[in-house]
Amino acid sequence: MASKAFxxxxxxxxLLASPFLQVVRCQSDAxxxxxxxAVDDATDLGIVGEEELDYGDGSFSAAPGIDTVCVFPxxxxxxxxxxxxxxxxxxxxxxxxxxxNVIAIKASVHYTFDHRLLIQNLSAVGFNNASVPASSQAxxxxxxxxxxxxxxxxxxxxxxIIYEIDQHPYQSTFFNGTIxxxxxxxxxxxxxxxxxxxxxxxxxxxxxxxxGQIQNLSKKTKRAxxxxxxxxxxxxxxxxxxxxxxxxSGSLSNxxxxxx
Length: 260
Known about the structure:
By secondary structure, this protein is α+β, with helices and mostly antiparallel strands. The protein has a domain at 66-183: Immunoglobulins (Immunoglobulin-like, Sandwich), CATH 2.60.40.10. 39% of the residues lie in helices and 31% in strands. The protein has 4 helices and 10 strands; from the N terminus they run αββββββββββααα. It starts with a helix and ends with a helix. Keywords: Calcium, Endoplasmic reticulum, Membrane, Signal, Transmembrane, Transmembrane helix.
């Protein structure tokens, strides 16, 4: 009887718990499906080649409510080696009411003293299904490489992100600042060799000047003045002055005694 009552109690407990188990299972299935959908969306967001871009070469205005930022990851000094790739992260914050679609990112290099003088148009990178919903933000990578023949120095880099809102093209500048370009292929450049040679020459000249000053000082200390004290001339003049006096006879007697 006790075992039969225990079986009935166990079956009743399973019947009561079965709806809860079904709900938990449904929730877990829904979460897995959402995660798979998110993964699918992430794989749809891809970078396409330059030949597939179709945004035109025109210049567009910036859309209202769109803010952009820029970060050089692991390169806060903004040091760019000529011919090597450098990464920029362009951030977009959509404060508008409509979703935007990022089409491409492009950049160009200019002279610092005259921004109108273009040095190089860098390659553009296009994005596929890169949408930023309203009241959200996203980050997009951009890899660029300046010409390996570009000499070292400071130059201006202008980065632009092109996007669409309600099928209208816009663009915003996410970076407009100075970068430091270094020559590739070696540690020493022509300018660095010149500076090192000039520094060594200055050090050698300074050493020679200090050595000359030390030698002059040592020569002056070696030349000590010699003072000679004579007694014969003074005695003769003294005898002439005392000649004909009693002191003269006394001095003669003293001299004769000294000779003896």
